[in-house]
Structure formats: C-alpha cells, structure tokens
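hey can u check if this looks right to u? its 214 residues, i copy pasted from the old doc so theres a chance i mangled smth
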Amino acid sequence: MDRAFSPAHDSWAPILNPLTEEVKSIFTTISGQEIAPDKSEIFEALRMNLADVRCVIVGQDPYPTAGHAHGLAFSVRGNVKRVPPSLKNIFTELESDMGIAIPPSGDLSPWRDHGVLLLNRVLTTQVGASNVHSGIGWEAITEHICKEVGSRGVPAILWGTKAQELDSLFPFHVSSVHPSPLSAYRGFFGSKPFSRVNSYLEELGRTPIDWSLR
C-alpha cells in the first residue's frame, strides 16, 4: 500500500490504492499549511483491520484546536484536559442510552478496539479554522471508503448533514443532527444511537458492541 495512507492497516489496500493519486493531489493542495490532525495521523482511523469493523460513526471534520485531533472522529488525545463540547454531548447521550458513566478522558480509541470505525467526511482542517478543507477532495475519498464498508453489511451512525449524505451506503443507519451544542437539542439527544446499533446487530445474530471507554 502507498505510504500516503500510513498508518492504515494493509487490509485496506484494495480500497485505498485506487485513491492514491486523489490523496496525493489533496496533499499538494494543503502543502505548507498547519493542519489537524498531523499528516502522520490522517488515516489513523484505518489502523484497524477492515475485517474487524462492526460499526461506522461518521462526523464532519477534525477539531481545529492544536493538539486535539488525532485521526479518530470526535476523539481527542488522552492528555487533553477540556473535552470539546460535541464530545461532552456524545458522552451525555452515551450515559442516557447505555448507562455508561462519562469517562475521564476524551480518547475514543477503545471504541476502535471494539470494532468502531471513527471517520470524518473531511479528514483534515487547518489549525484554528473549522471546515476549510471541505470541497478539496476528501468527501469522495470517504464516500468510497464508506461504500466499501457498507457493502459488507456494517451499520452506521451518521451525525450531521455531511454524514447523512452517505445513508444509502449502509444496510442500517442511525442518523441525527451533529452533537454540536448548536444543534444537539434538535434531535441528537434521545436518538439512542448506541443501543439501536446493538439491537440491529443482535437481530442478525451478531455480538453487540461494547461501548464502554475505560
């Protein structure tokens, strides 16, 4: 697999290799910019084996605050003391839906370890500015990834309008507004995404996802 996709797992090679030129073109576009996440972490979400993906959570774009984004949608590094408001709202819904206590850290890596692909529609942004890399090519890349994952029968949680554009690619999806404080009260809270995905998996005889973060 091309080095452009590091640290993605080799199992993604058949999906990613055809996208090499498109990704290199994006890298040329953003060359010289201070970006989030770091270039070495852009494909961090794909570090997991494709065969282990059991659910996809799709968001918008990375946190623009320096040192926060690390390649997993909605996640922040474990040393970030102040959890972003969107992630606080996710934890509030997690506690309401599943009875899981709000964790001390905003690092969502345990979800990836449990089979959850945490993917933003747009994989980069400039430090200090949200959504400035929309329209430079990432949407086509992530749509291709989601199409391949969805074709394997994987359900999705789609948060926000950009994520909801992909709803037809998945056999089952839970869609709502983005968990941002600007929109969370318009349908995110009470949407019960975690239990609904688990109910779907159980109906198919699959093991439900462990949504705990400790």
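The longest strand covers residues 55-59.
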